[in-house]
Amino acid sequence: MIGIMNRLQNKNILITGASSGIGKECAFRCYEEGAKVHLLGRNERSLKEIYAQLNDNNNSISILDLQDFERYQNIIESIVTKHGKIDGFIHSAGYQIVLPISAMNYQMYLDIFSVNTISAFEFIRLLSKKNYSNLSGMSIVLIASIMSVLADTALTAYCASKSALVGGAKALALELANKGIRINCISPGTLADTAMTDNLKKQISEEEFHRIEQEYPMGLGSTKDISSLCLFLLSDESKWITGQNIIVDGGLSVR
Ligand SMILES: NC(=O)c1ccc[n+]([C@@H]2O[C@H](COP(=O)([O-])OP(=O)(O)OC[C@H]3O[C@@H](n4cnc5c(N)ncnc54)[C@H](OP(=O)(O)O)[C@@H]3O)[C@@H](O)[C@H]2O)c1
């Protein structure tokens, strides 16, 4: 009998942003659940360290800057050739720009949309081809942000990129439902244990960070809080859930 620790037995899961934070946590937890994990990121050293800890050559790493769109197909092709068709995709790569509108320029919007938003849609376009996706269905989880539904000052580009990700995911969920492909977003609030939060701390004052912390009824979250939902969404237990943006924010948004 398949136990709780084998919810992703033998599934091929592709993960962007696997070199740190939520993506890295998801990589370890998917592996523990029996998946073969295929890790994408720019930071080769970090990916190699994670790969070594997994200690199993059914997994793989690929060094990819998500702005290199023309490389996506070859990377997917080589993973599928070696390991089989893809059952799940986690798009965790993303970054934040904290700047007032007066300091923004158009290139910053193009860059953040490329990584946070368009890369997810491009991966989904390729992964939905019958040569690459498992015929018995595929689950796609896009890590958005609570900033897809709420907002804060100096976050125009980030809020816009995450709202657009959620909007596109809903349309894609409808378009790809008849292929058995499910697409959901997870929108986390601020997590205490990520590089993104460390960077945020560098960009704002201590008082401002304290103000953010105080807004969370259950305190800040952790990458584990997000990976738990991710595993559920990747597994067959969630087989009738698609097109959703699930908020995981310790109660912030219901204040
Ligand atoms: N941390 C939070 O509080 C929080 C809250 C809400 C939403 N989120 C979202 O959660 C996701 C994961 O963030 P995190 O907290 O885990 O932060 P993180 O530790 O900074 O991870 C970000 C990941 O994105 C990858 N990445 C960034 N630019 C890339 C590019 N051009 N090409 C390829 N990979 C790129 C990085 O890979 P390399 O280092 O290898 O380049 C890294 O693995 C993001 O989408 C973020 O917006 C985070």
Can you describe what's shown?
With 255 residues, the protein is α/β, with parallel strands linked by helices. The chain has one domain: NAD(P)-binding Rossmann-like Domain (Rossmann fold, 3-Layer(aba) Sandwich), CATH 3.40.50.720. It is 42% helix and 15% strand. α4 links the parallel β4 and β5. The mean pLDDT is 96. It binds NADP nicotinamide-adenine-dinucleotide phosphate. NADP nicotinamide-adenine-dinucleotide phosphate binds next to α1 and α6.
CATH architecture: 3-Layer(aba) Sandwich
User: The biggest beta sheet, please?
Assistant: 7 strands, parallel
The molecules bound to the chains, other than polymers, are:
NADP nicotinamide-adenine-dinucleotide phosphate
| CATH topology group | Rossmann fold
Task: Tell how many strands the DSSP assignment holds.
Answer: 7
Run of helices and strands: EHEHEHEHEHEHHHE
What's the CATH class label?
A: Alpha Beta
Rg over CA atoms, rounded to whole Å, is: 18 Å
Query: Please, what is the CATH homologous superfamily?
Result: NAD(P)-binding Rossmann-like Domain
Structural class: alpha/beta
- Spans where pLDDT lies below 50 across 5 or more residues: none
Helix content: 40-55%
> Separation of termini?
43 Å
Key words describing this protein structure:
Rossmann fold, binds NADP nicotinamide-adenine-dinucleotide phosphate, 7 strands, alpha/beta, 255 residues, 7-stranded parallel sheet
Describe the structure concisely for a colleague.
By secondary structure, the protein is an alpha/beta fold.
